[in-house]
Amino acid sequence: MRQFITFVKKEFAHILRDKKTLLILFGMPISQILIFGFALTNEVKNVKIAIVDRARDEQSRRLISKIDASKYFEVKKILGNAVQVDNELKKGTIKMAVIFPANFSSDLAHYNTSQVQIVLDGSDPNTANTIKNYITAIVTDHQRQQQSNVPALYQIIPEVRMLYNPQLLDAPNFVPGVMALVLMLVCVMMTAVSIVKEKEMGNMEILLVSPIKPGMVILTKTFPYLVLSLVNLTIILLLSIFVLKLPVNGSLVLLFAESILFIITCLTLGIFISVKTSSQEVAMLISLMGMLIPTILFSGFMFPIENMPYPLQMISNIIPSKWYYIIVKSIMIKGLGFSAIWKETLVLATITSVLLAVSLKSFKIRLE
Amino acid sequence: MRTIRFLLVKEFKQIFRNRSILVMIIGMPVIQLMILPLAANYEVKNINIVIVNQDHSPVSAKLVSKINASTYLNVLSHLTSYDQALKLAEDDKTDLILQIPPHFEKNLIRDNQQKLFIAVNAINGMKAGLGYGYLSNIIQMFNEELRGQMMPRSKFNVAQEIELEFTSRFNPHQVYYLFMVPGILAFLVTMITGFLSALNIVKEKEMGTIEQINVTPIKKYHFILGKLIPFWIIGTVVFTLGLMVSFFVYGIVPAGSILLLYGFMWVYLLAVLGFGLLVSTYCDKQQQAMLIMFFFMMIFILMGGLLTSIDGMPYWAKMIAALNPVSYIIDVVRAVVLKGSGLQDILPQLGTIIVFAIVLNSWAIYNYKKTN
Amino acid sequence: MDTRALNNEKVIVVDKLTKRFGDFVATDAISFDVYKGEIFGFLGANGAGKTTAMKMLCGLLTPSSGTAVVAGFDIHKQAQELKWNIGYMGQKFSLYDDLTIIENIRYYAGIYNLSNQQISDKSEGLITRLGLQKEAKKLVGQLPTGWKQKVAFSVALLHEPRIVFLDEPTGGVDPITRRQFWDMIYESAEKGTTIFITTHYMDEAEYCDRVSIMVDGKIEALDKPAELRRLYEAESMDEVFYQLARRAKRSE
Fold first, then answer.
1. ipTM of the assembly?
2. Range A47-146 has CATH code 3.40.1710.10
3. CA dihedral A230, A231, A237, A241 (to 10 degrees)
């Protein structure tokens, strides 16, 4: 135990001396949680559109102003013809164009129907679909207003409850995701690099010829990062609660316990990488370049995992942040207890033990 | 020029000698590009719904069958109690719960109106909105139909109807990966060149070789160019590999000019490399450089329009996005590959990137101090 | 052993050179001259300010005040021109571990703008002289420290600089290699190259033409080794150094 304390002190001295790194280590999660917590949104709004109004009458103008007034659309251009529409779509200045025919109102008056053409930028199918729904809803609504004289008979009134997130904010979805992402990448990278650095500098040899057990060496290297990550976690949680106004509906103790487990999982992953690599550069490239996009995609906070092809769903199962994301959501937002997340907890624990076992084994081989 | 040749020979020797890095530079983007676009899928069809029908009347049965028939909603199960359904929502198994209360039909006829209860799993606001939209649409259509059947014709005004005719340009089959592949490719190229260039000078600092360079009469811009060109070439190689993967795996043939694509990429690479070198002139340890690059890469990817739309962000976030070079390359690669945009379409982006490249590189050269 | 006649042409003129890092005065108004072809020993305990002073003379650090003219160039205004005329071998290792000896030579020769003919002549000469024909294509990282240092010294001389600055070049090197290293130093001094060297080995101090000893950022003594011994009534340079260094108030 005294050995342990001596070494941990030395590691802390290293970390605390490097003010620049320390600043980034704490500043980064804070600023990222704030930036992403406020900025990220899945909602499609303020979509820039163009109007081609060949009708130029009362009817079309009323519909146009209704479209422009909605928060979803912003009329950016008034164009003369379809060729111009294509050009603007290519430039990316607009994502949709609404084209009113010349006989818009007269058709409505005589045939009770008229066609409005909608041209979409389909390169992003997600946005295109959403836009399609919005414009349909606006037009339907417009029509209903025009003929509000229909009596309300046999009316079915849907009563909606938005569970967990009544105001449909983006933060409850994104903040747990960003939390998982930031914690994971920082933990993995810092541990991986700090151990590989010792190897690169030749200090590892000194530690290995000393009578300390290899397990102890690794433990003392990672312990400071566990502490730092917990400090980070606390700051992130405080920001989420007081600045981003996220609720903690479940038990805070449980949340912390699960977070410690997740941090340990990530630290173990870092150890694993460091055992398998020999230069800082490679360790960094693996833990960032190799992991950044997969972690974002497979955590499930950007794209639903159940939509992925089956093999990719399998891959997502070995990404620790996916499980942590589910856990955080369950505890913070849904207010569930341990009984709801024991499976996820078990998976994290399993990943941790497997990684740890493999790392310790390869670490010993290096000694012999 | 001759000096630069010597610098380049040295950098390339070092790159080719480091096999594990080389494998990562080449292998990682290829593998990621082959897998990841398929993971980024917003299939809106997969919205799950649980129906709690406590009415068991012909009307409610008809509504249920309407929902069953919808291609957008996937009926997960029929349950009898709301609490059971809520459990499924807690486990994120279902996105929607529709509860049809007892005596629904009876009350509807007696009171002329009746409520339906919908619960939406709203953590993911986007999915919630979409799912609710689909469901209420179905209910509304069902309602109109019902009214049409139950009310005498004469009472019913003939409605004027505006028909919307949709045409979708550029991606008629609405394949999501078509949209993701160019974007992910652009980001992969950014990440590789950005990380490598940020680490490079710092590595020389950490090893101590930079001091030897600094006592030589080498010119600052020679030195920076010697660092920039190798990664510029690597970036081009990675981009080419990526285009090949796009073609052979996804069958994507750029709709626009390939030359334009490369032209823009070359200018863009200068900007990214300038940024990487700038970061490395500010750091003395690889770890620092890596952390700083990581910070920026996170912002680049999450605020670059790759995964979520920039349009929906608040004003200040849009400003950040405007300073994010990645948002331009993603925009342009998508535009040229999918929409066939030409030079005149991407001029604003090109201009911005040229400014970025000049500013970042001059800053890097200025800040690379041979003397302390 | 020392058959060289000392030239009285000054190649380094240092006048009240000072470097402050915040409140800390690393180098405190030092003044001295170094003559052409001289082997000038620059001694001092760790933290005495040697490396700082040397880095200023090489144009790696900007002085806070004072002036110095090195090889005829003002280190303030003519740092770039100065660099064509000096060679440097730092404390940290200056060659690339992941390049071969030949590749390292070509790289540095290229930076100094040597012609292709010169480069191939020089590298061939250098390798033969050091007897490294077999190792020429090996990665530098695989060489023993002593060999690395010899190669690094030769590389620092590639462009035939007028002055070479050596910062503890023989640290961690075995006695035989150190001896060979000093033979190389003498050889180049005989050709008229000025050698400016810092060291912790007092036997090496004896090999220098003149020695300066820095204590707490100031030069406390400067003379021929024999004169210094006489002045401090010491039997060896070791003792001289000990007497002076003991006065130091600051440690590392």
1. 0.80
2. yes
3. 150
